[in-house]
Amino acid sequence: MYNILVDLCNRKTIATCIVQRGRIILLAYERMLNVQISQIVGLGRHAVGRWRRRWQASYKALLCIQLNESKAALVRAVMDVLRDAHRSGTACKFSAEQVVQLVSIACEDPRASGRPVEDWTGAELADEMQKRQIVDSISVSRVNELLRQMDLQPHRRKSWCFTTEQDHQLFQSQVEDVCRTYLEAASAYQFHRRRTICVDEMTSLQANELRAQTLRSVPGKVGRYECQYMRHGTLSLTGSWDVVLGQMIQTTIQETRNSEDFARHIDQTIATDPKAEWLFVLDNLNTHYGEPIVRLVASLLGIAENTLGDKKKRQGILGNAKSRRKFLSDRNHRIRFVFIPKHSSWLNQIEVIFRIISKRVLRHASFTSKQDLKEKLIAFIEYFNQTFAKPFQWVFNGKPTKSNQIKRPKTWREKTKDKKIEKILALVE
User: Fold this and answer.
1) Which of 13, 259, 295, 314 could form a disulfide with 290 if both were Cys (CB 3.0 to 4.6 A apart)?
2) What's the average model confidence in pLDDT over 242-257?
């Protein structure tokens, strides 16, 4: 933080008051008295003492930002600490009760007020307040300003997904098993030559050809692309992501993705290192534990086919989905599958790779045929492996992290800002 203060004091485009207060803190680091500092910076000793106390009150918050956030965030926080206190300004035109009613309306479902929309806008909230005769008139900008002060954003939403698994202990154990697989992958590869692979499919990749050539960006103009296109069909991509090496070691691109296709892809993946142990992380799609993959794993493990049972007669290992999953998940096998819980695709690392492929290859692209789409996908994956592909730094162990439970201390300006909100929210209680 000392170096940041020095840099701020040397800037020529920064406010004089910020430079003056930064010099106060720098001189305080040299153990100078308030009287001495006041003579150097040309400010009263009481004002010098006030800024030293404010810096001291904000030091823990600044230290947390320095340890956990970027340097740019720290610079912004230091400048904020050195700014003037929040002013009350002119008397508010609206009473606290009216502001609380605005907050109440913003937290309601718009359909309850007869508006066929999902989210409130500032204009609709202003109109609703006048319609309910809460205020005679209020501007949209004032509504938005009050919402910002309350840290209320009616237009924003975050999604969540509840698992359909009824046994929550089973769900938790499955999550921890997947995370333990990632955390132990490096040591398992080093000492036991066990390859940890994430597998999944990208389906319905459209080979669409734009009717006009895309115009690249030029100074002063953004790039443009044609919205009309011709369809040439779809393909599916099945990939194998090596968790330790950080590479796509096998890619299968074709029109179908049935159980036989999946078994063939796994066979080709294992063929890249036949003598190694293999651990595959994948979701619960039925093709991932179908009869073809069970027969493939059994043959690679040297297990006789006549011991697998009969799927049609519902006998033995092939009898049902539960028995097939149990066989594939057997910890005593050299080739083992780890199935992630339902509705937990974020646990599969290859989903991140698919997002990169979608953004870098498919978005706004034009393909003259399915073969053209396939060639471009293969070319990108080779380029990806050679340039910026690397292992993920997986630290999640399946349990809530402590960092989400510990809140950062607040600076003195953040505390004074919160007092305004607390006065209004106190009326709600």
Assistant:
1) 259
2) 95
**What SS3 class is residue 5?**
helix
Q: Which structural domain, as residue segments, surrounds residue 77?
A: 2-81
Tokens encoding 406: 């510990």
pLDDT per residue as tens digits for the range 100-135: 899 899 999 999 999 999 999 999 999 999 999 999
- Cα(51)–Cα(46) distance, rounded to whole angstroms? 9
Closest CA to 41 of 14, 61, 16, 71: 16
- Look at residue 404 and tell me whether its pLDDT is greater than 50: no
CATH number of 205's domain: 3.30.420.10
- Asked whether residue 186 falls in the same domain as residue 313, the answer is yes
Work out how many domains the chain is built from and give that number.
Answer: 3
Residues 103, 180 share a domain: no
Beta bridge partners of 124: none
357 and 300 in one domain?
Answer: yes
- DSSP label at 21? H
* Exposure string for 129-168, b = 16+ CB within 10 A, e = fewer: beeeebbeebeeebbeebbeebeeebeeeeeeeeeeeeee
Determine the Cα–Cα distance for residues 146 and 85; give it in Å rounded to an integer.
19
Asked if residue 271 and residue 351 are part of one domain, the reply reads yes
Give residue 406's pLDDT.
58
CA distance 388 to 122: 43
Nearest to 239 by CA among 353, 162, 346: 353
Among 39, 56, 81, residue at a domain's last position: 81
199 and 128 in a common domain: no
Q: Are residues 174 and 153 in the same domain?
A: no
Is residue 144 assigned to a domain?
yes
Rounded to 5°, angle at Cα 138 from 133 and 144: 120
| Pairwise CA distance, residues 335 & 199, whole Å | 14
